[in-house]
Design the sequence.
């Protein structure tokens, strides 16, 4: 979208505000961007986690560029902590990326499920929508996630151990395997495809994993979609920032599809 975008504030009876911008056609992508991120302090004392830089760009810019690559053009940001900084940055990039943006604001922390429920008015008329955490670098192609009749589908990657593994023969170590992939275990990436039916299962506050997803799993209404070759890394610590930056600079993360700022534009 080109030219100035009109943005207005509408206050609903639940006391939360929704900043609305002009809508575009196509499926919406929801970015969770409202948390405090205590583990990345002191950086996040002044910068919201989605704006923490890795590989020369904020995490959220990598996410937006990847989702645009996957065909997404309409975004909903769930914001709270340092929300004005998220507004300013995302709005400054929207025209160049060719995207439209809406915001659902948490006045108090609601958890991931509560934050999504707070955006109900922006999403309840959508047949399906994508959702992801705002602290994730991943090459999961959201176009390949299908609901298959479920209320929600989770993108899964194989779990990589955070520790070195030893092989034993009796009490004798025979082999070391440094941080191997545990191929029998599949990890939730925090990247989802959701049906609008999800709003029937959301609490006013609380986290998706401990409320909504537990309930859906008990009813066999939650699907897992495996991405064995996808890159995935959450940025939760200084060490994660360093590792992800190295993977972005070496093009391991996105396979050269996206470039670091110093390497030129895609």
Sequence:
């Amino acid at each position: 979208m080109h030219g100035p975008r009109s943005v207005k504030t509408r206050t609903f009876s639940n006391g939360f505000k929704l900043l609305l911008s002009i809508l575009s056609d196509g499926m919406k992508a929801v970015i969770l961007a409202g948390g405090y991120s205590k583990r990345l302090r002191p950086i996040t004392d002044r910068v919201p986690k989605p704006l923490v830089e890795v590989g020369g760009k904020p995490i959220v810019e990598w996410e937006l560029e990847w989702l645009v690559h996957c065909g997404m053009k309409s975004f909903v940001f769930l914001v709270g902590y340092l929300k004005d900084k998220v507004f300013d940055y995302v709005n400054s990039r929207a025209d160049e990326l060719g995207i439209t943006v809406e915001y659902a604001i948490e006045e108090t922390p609601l958890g991931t499920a509560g934050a999504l429920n707070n955006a109900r008015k922006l999403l309840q008329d959508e047949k399906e929508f994508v959702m992801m955490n705002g602290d994730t670098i991943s090459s999961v192609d959201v176009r390949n996630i299908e609901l298959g009749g479920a209320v929600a589908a989770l993108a899964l990657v194989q779990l990589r151990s955070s520790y070195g593994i030893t092989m034993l023969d009796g009490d004798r170590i025979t082999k070391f395997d440094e941080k191997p992939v545990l191929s029998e275990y599949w990890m939730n990436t925090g990247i989802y495809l959701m049906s609008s039916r999800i709003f029937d299962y959301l609490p006013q506050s609380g986290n998706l994993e401990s409320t909504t997803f537990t309930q859906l799993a008990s009813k066999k209404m939650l699907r897992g979609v495996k991405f064995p070759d996808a890159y995935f890394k959450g940025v939760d610590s200084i060490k994660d920032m360093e590792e992800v930056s190295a993977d972005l600079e070496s093009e391991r993360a996105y396979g050269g599809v996206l470039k670091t700022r110093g390497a030129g534009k895609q």
Summary: The first strand starts at residue 8 and ends at 11. The chain is about 20% helix and 30% strand.
